[in-house]
Amino acid sequence: MQHAGLRLLGVFLKTHGIKGHLVLKLYDFIDEKIEEGEPVFVSIDGIPVPFFISEFLIKTDETAIIKFDETDDENQAQTFTGCNVYSELKSGGRGELPEKGGEIDLSGFRVVDGKYGDTGILKEIVELPENPVMIIDYKGSEILVPFHKDIVRLIDYENRLIEISAPDGLLELYL
User: Fold this and answer.
1) Which region, left, alpha or beta, applies to residue 123 given φ > 0 means left and ψ of -120 to 50 means alpha?
2) How far, in Å, CA of 110 to CA of 44, rounded?
3) pLDDT of residue 84 exceeding 80
4) Is there a contact between 53 and 71 (Cβ–Cβ < 8 Å)?
5) pLDDT of 29-51, one tens digit each?
6) pTM of the full structure
7) Residue 66 and residue 39: Cα distance in Å, rounded?
8) Do 111 and 164 form a contact (C-beta atoms < 8 A)?
């Protein structure tokens, strides 16, 4: 589920130790620094609920250890396992490329246009000056679509899906 103004970080896999720590499986590389005292949002019954971080440690490229101010033992932490975790969008919002050095790999995501439906699989995003372009594989052919906030409507990290609304006439050139 996508929440406006929030970016999916990952999902809690399990508890870590007995003092309320949790293992967070990261869906993508974290391109912003997450500070202690900042909130993250845990999806509880489909509603993003803010919790403040008391400890945060990236263990590997795919996992982090996190503890909330509100969790003091393993039983409290256990209630969060299986929950999705979100952070606030820091800069630019959805549809814009992250700063250099913190790029997110969206290759392999399915691309769906509101009018034409399945548009193919994203191969890569080419960073042209001031105009990044998605290269989408559609039945062995390449479709080029600007990676812009007016075109990219939704990036669903959990389902590996990008929803677009291509300008009139653009996809007709390829399909």
Assistant:
1) alpha
2) 27
3) yes
4) no
5) 565 567 778 888 998 888 889 99
6) 0.51
7) 12
8) yes
d(CA 152, CA 16): 37
**Model confidence at 163: pLDDT above 80:** yes
Radius of gyration over every alpha carbon of the chain, rounded to an integer in angstroms: 18
Interval 112-136: pLDDT, tens: 998 888 999 999 888 776 778 899 9
Cα–Cα distance, 60 to 51 (Å, whole number) = 23
More confident residue, 105 or 103: 105
pLDDT at 98: 40
Q: Say if CB 157 and CB 89 are below 8 A apart.
A: no
CB 123 within 8 A of CB 135: yes
**Contact (Cβ atoms closer than 8 angstroms) between residue 53 and residue 98:** no
Burial string for 131-150 (b: 16+ CB within 10 Å, else e) reads eeebbbbbeeeebebbbbee
Residue 101, Cβ density class (10 Å: 0-12 exposed, 13-18 middle, ≥19 buried): exposed
50 three-state secondary structure: strand
Q: In the beta sheet, which residues pair with residue 154?
A: 163
Domains of the chain: residue spans and CATH: 6-88 (2.40.30.60), 110-173 (2.30.30.240)
Separation in Å, CA 14 to CA 8, 19, 20, 23, 63:
18, 13, 11, 6, 11
